[in-house]
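Can anyone check this?
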Amino acid sequence: MIDIEGYRGFVFDFYDTLCYVKEDIFLEGKKRSAELLGVTFEDFFAIWKKLGKKNITGELYYTKDRVKETISGLNLEADEEIIEKISRLNDDYLVKAAIPYKGVEKIVEKLSEKYDLYILSNASSSVEEVIERFNDIFKHFKKIYFSYEHGLAKPDPNFYKLLIENESIDPNKYFYVGDGNDQELDIAKTFGFTTIKVSHEVMASYRFRESEHFDHDIKDLKELLPK
């Protein structure tokens, strides 16, 4: 059991920590996009994924922007109707795929009774399509930082620094909770956060450099609750 006494709050990642994305549904949107363009799923997805950093930092702010650059990367041309259709497909399938992990709402509600809660997460503007499903969860957080709104994304230390300075957080009094993707826990630890890796089901197709250094490893978010 993790001793959370003496701490002031928690900073949570969002995707693969609070929100699970069902991979088969998510990838179906990519497969249908590839079919509309007459290319293989592998070719479409390789370029789509490569453009992820530009999308989550807001350089390619809208899904439509990412679609256009993906089409260009495939050395294709497409009319506006096809671009709009592919953009809508990808946003719709993300919404269908994204669900809260079991019990998340009750867990964050309970934690918020005593602790300050924040979200610091990589996300494109497509997350706006997901938010409605999470309103009952988000209301328990003092502030939510999504990367596309700030032009910064993990593992960039400046994204953590933005939260720390804006919210006057003392990392030594906070937990950072995440699935560990893209070295997020390693960087959080350098700031003094007590880091917690959540080892539950995640979307395997979007894994990058896994975190190697963290203080605790749990299987379920309910393990954060005091006994």
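Reply from J.R.: I decoded it. Strands lie at 9-12, 19-21, 98-100, 116-121, 143-146, 174-178, 194-198, 216-218.
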